Amino acid sequence: MGKGPGLYSDIGKKARDLLYKDYQSDHKFIITTYSPTGVVITSSGTKKGDLFLADVNTQLKNKNITTDIKVDTNSNLFTTITIDEAAPGLKTIFSFRVPDQRSGKVELQYLHDYAGISSSVGLTANPIVNFSGVIGNNLVALGTDLSFDSKTGNFTKCNAGLSFSNADLIAALTLNDKGDTLSASYYHSVNPQSNTAVGAEVTHSFSTNENTITLGTQHALDPLTTVKARVNNFGKANALIQHEWRPKSTFTISGEVDTRAIEKSAKVGLALALKP
């Protein structure tokens, strides 16, 4: 565990990664290359049914400044400039998208041993202001996540979260959607040597009175191969196997079946990530 409570987005992240990360039903590939001058170029493509989406991202680093420029198949140009450690614990992020002139945004992140703060504001006449803050330490953290639309004068997002961590267990409780959705998650590291872990998430919607329960696990068959599985109370079962066939390069096969409609074809996803 690191020092400090981290950012609000870190609350429940371990359980979310265990239950949802790397699962997909699409076909995806990612190729990363490095130039002698230190420029990193990442090309990715995703096939969703008959639709193919692609983008190319170029990353340049100069001391503590990182610039990311990405172009996608819709001719959108995304630019993100990140300045690390402008002051101790402070990160500044400036981002915008062309041709959307209203997409400009400035974000500040500050990490301390007993607090984590992230605040952003849109570069428009009537911006949306986001703020999230966490207080605590690496054992207990309490935080909130807010968004305010200055044009309408309304809060568009109001969330709160609580996290408890120790050496092998992380539990989190969050209240989202302006108090309409209550989620509790649990992550337990069973055997760090084999990367064996179990996790669960229970979500209750007050407006629909509906509960969603998701259980998952992961295990490393060997240092290069990991398997994961999850199931929810709606009968959806997922599994994946990921193999690192060369350093930093992985091949992932994932599948999903609906146990309540077993006659339907299973969904199969493939992902290939190549790095030199």
UniProtKB/TrEMBL annotation:
Main location: membrane
UniProt keyword annotation of Membrane present: yes
Domain of life where this protein originates: Eukaryota
Similarity-based family: Belongs to the eukaryotic mitochondrial porin (TC 1.B.8.1) family.
Localization in the cell: Membrane
InterPro entries assigned: Porin_dom_sf (IPR023614), Porin_Euk (IPR001925), Porin_Euk/Tom40 (IPR027246)
GO cellular component: mitochondrial outer membrane; pore complex
The keyword Membrane appears for this protein: yes
Gene Ontology MF, one: porin activity
Protein name: Mitochondrial outer membrane protein porin of 34 kDa
Record's keyword terms, sorted: Ion transport, Membrane, Porin, Transmembrane, Transmembrane beta strand, Transport
Signal peptide boundaries: none
